[in-house]
Specification:
This protein has 227 residues and is mainly alpha-helical. The protein is 52% helix and 5% strand.
């Protein structure tokens, strides 16, 4: 790995750390009612989102652990994530906030998606909680740029985004010099593009352009995980 690549990976880890700390600060100020607010993740409240941000920092799943988990959860990655998240969510609120702060700098490099996957998760899940609460807590555009690059990449099609979601669309960020794809255009903030591409229908109304009508039916809200 060259020095430029090493610097790029270091920047990814720094963004992930900053996003977790931003989320921890937001969670620390929430009321009990806000913790119970449904998030943009189907079947999860804000509390489960906070727990989901913390859980991988404690387990740091590698390939062998992932295979063992999948056997335990009958081959369902979604069921595994849901059940492990709910176990962590049962902890006291202060423990969730403290844990996220203390482990914010944990460096995750899971199989296939590498450090870009967890980093992207930090921004998207922060907004999964903040958007329903009407809070403008959000990473800056510069922090969304590597997340956007990841979301439109081939590795992201392995678990993050269906392969055909972006076909025939051209995304253009309005808050920084970033664009991707060929086809009908979609304009919007880096955050709104990232959230919509990640399958969050709530972000579609923050986008403009004829491509929005093409993207909308491709984003179907997921049903809660069944036990």
């Amino acid at each position: 790995m060259g020095s430029d690549s090493a610097a790029g990976v270091e920047a990814i880890y720094q963004i992930a750390t900053a996003n977790r700390l931003l989320a921890a600060d937001m969670f620390a100020d929430l009321t009990p009612e806000q913790w119970r607010t449904p998030s943009l993740c189907a079947g999860w409240t804000v509390r489960e989102v906070a727990a989901h941000l913390l859980e991988p920092l404690e387990t740091k799943v590698d390939t062998l652990k992932l295979l063992a988990y999948l056997v335990r959860y009958r081959g369902s990655l979604d069921r595994m994530v849901d059940e492990t998240t709910r176990k962590v969510a049962a902890r006291p609120t202060d423990e969730l906030v403290t844990g996220l702060r203390e482990r914010a700098s944990t460096r995750l490099t899971p199989p296939v998606v590498g450090p870009l996957g967890p980093m992207t998760d930090t921004g998207v899940h922060l907004r999964d909680a903040a958007r329903p609460l009407g809070l403008d807590v959000c990473p800056p555009p510069a922090s969304w740029r590597p997340a956007l690059d990841f979301l439109v990449s081939k590795p992201a099609s392995r678990g993050f985004i269906p392969r055909d979601r972006l076909v025939g669309l051209r995304f253009i960020a309005t808050d920084q010099d970033w664009q991707h794809g060929k086809g009908v255009e979609i304009h919007g903030s880096s955050e709104a593009i990232a959230m919509a591409v990640s399958g969050r229908p709530a972000a579609l109304d923050d986008l403009a352009g004829a491509g929005t009508d093409v993207l909308r039916p491709r984003i179907v809200p997921l049903a809660p995980i069944q036990p």
